[in-house]
Structure formats: structure tokens, C-alpha cells
Amino acid sequence: MSTQANIDTIRRFKVGTMNVEVYPSRESMGAAAARATAEAMTQLALSQDMMGVIFATGASQLATLDALTKIDGLPWSKVSGFHLDEYVALPIEHLASFRGYLRKNLTDKVPIGTFNEVDGTAADLDEVCRSYAEKLRAANPQLCLLGIGENGHLAFNDPPVADFNDPLDVKVVKLDEACRIQQTAEGWFKTANDVPERAVTLTIPTMLRVPKLIVSVPGTRKAGIMRRSLTEEISTACPATILRTHPDVTIYLDNDSASELADFLPSY
Ligand SMILES: N[C@@H]1[C@@H](O)[C@H](O)[C@@H](COP(=O)(O)O)O[C@@H]1O
């Protein structure tokens, strides 16, 4: 009998309008998410001089970004890049800085047109949010890469602060305790106390406005939240449930993160 870990085919299913694709490994998941991103960028480049693309960070994005940066011939010079979130007051040199992560894993590797960084160390964070929101509105991003946190967060919209009708585009949030603990599990910080208490984040409506969402969620630690994201009532108790209302979203999983989705995947 086969187990989820040794299933080596690609399995696809739909939950409402949402497409879910399950790959045999983290690497094959990343390659598939990268191919979809590359196709979307190539299409957009046919009709746009500059395209806004929002990139995600975290361990879940490493395979996707690695594969994406190795694809030849992409129209990087036409990309105006953005990111989802950044810790407040964390220096760029810190391992967990999302700006540092994106330099290392993206912008140092490809000839991107422009990249708009969120400076969480700036003195006036209201101004950081206001000007980032303005840049996002002007760029009108057509493509957004996303991850899902173990607590269901999208960017840093943790359950206690997530608002599906948020009037703001970008805001400063207080991080949930569960979220701060989860950041240590991946080794970004030594203890939960080392995790900054606040972050700048795009809000949920800002992400959902983007017409195409490519969501990479590999790994065993995400199995429980993937089940909740696909089966629970849509609510801010699990912010990722809102993705089920988006008209063009594909979730890329590996066998590990799909391990609690047996009823969607009858071959288990
Ligand atoms: N706030 C970031 C998000 O931008 C990311 O999409 C999500 C998944 O991260 P990871 O892949 O590290 O689990 O949570 C991180 O903490």
C-alpha cells in the first residue's frame, strides 16, 4: 500500500474556485509554482511596460524562488517588485529580515527592474505604510506570491488582527503570540522573545485585489492549517480561508503539507 510520502504523481483538485496541486516533493512543488509565476510574468510582459509583482518570504518560498530565479529569459527588467511584510525595527542584516531575505534569494540573482522595500527600521512607520500603499496603488500588481502561516496568517494578518474588510492597504500590526513562537520553529530567531512585537504588513484586501495568486505551502508543519484552510468556515479565525473566495488562486502543496487532505485525495 502506498503512503502519502511515496506518492510520486501530481494530484490536482478544486475547492470551489480554488485550484490545489499536490507535488511529490518540496522541490517539484517549487518548480511548479515557479513555472506558473514565469508564465504569468511572460503573459503580462506582452501588454505591460512595467508589471507589479508581490513576492512572499519565509521558508515556504525558498524552493519557489530558487526555481524561479533559475528560469532563463524572463522579463525581469519589466518587474516592479513588492513584498508582503517586514518586522518593525529588525536590521536588514538579521537572518529574519524579509528585505534581507529578498535581496539574497531574489534581487541579487535576477536583473529586476525595481524593487520596493518596506523599511521596518524607519522612524515614521505611518509614513512607511502610507507611501508603500501609494506605490502599490500606482503599480496595480497583477500577480502575488503568497505563503500561509501555521496559524493561517496571510502576510502578517494573524487571526486576532486579520480583517477581510480592512479599510487600510498597508498597516502596522502587533504580532500574535502563536505567530511569534512559530517563527522560532523555523530557526529565524532563537526564542519567541527575540521576535519583534510588531510588523508592517499588506492587509488582506490589498492581497485579494491582485488578480492572480500563487500560493506555495510545503512541509509537515503546514498540514493542519491546510486542512483548516480548505474545510473551515470562511472567517478570520483562519485568515487563509478567504483565499477560497478569490477567482484565480492556485495552492501548491507537497505530500507533507497535503497529508491531512486524504478525503480530497482518494488515492491516499
Ligand atoms: N509573515 C510571513 C509571511 O509573509 C509568509 O508568507 C508566511 C509563511 O511563512 P513560512 O513559509 O516561513 O512558514 O509567514 C511568514 O511569517
UniProtKB/TrEMBL annotation:
It is an enzyme of class 3 (hydrolase). Residues 25-246 form the Glucosamine/galactosamine-6-phosphate isomerase domain. One of its GO terms (cellular component) is cytoplasm. GO terms for molecular function: glucosamine-6-phosphate deaminase activity; identical protein binding. Pfam families: Glucosamine_iso. This is Glucosamine-6-phosphate deaminase. InterPro entries: Glc/Gal-6P_isomerase, Glucosamine6P_isomerase, NagB/RpiA_transferase-like. The keyword Hydrolase applies. Its EC number is 3.5.99.6. One of its GO terms (biological process) is glucosamine catabolic process. Keywords: Hydrolase.
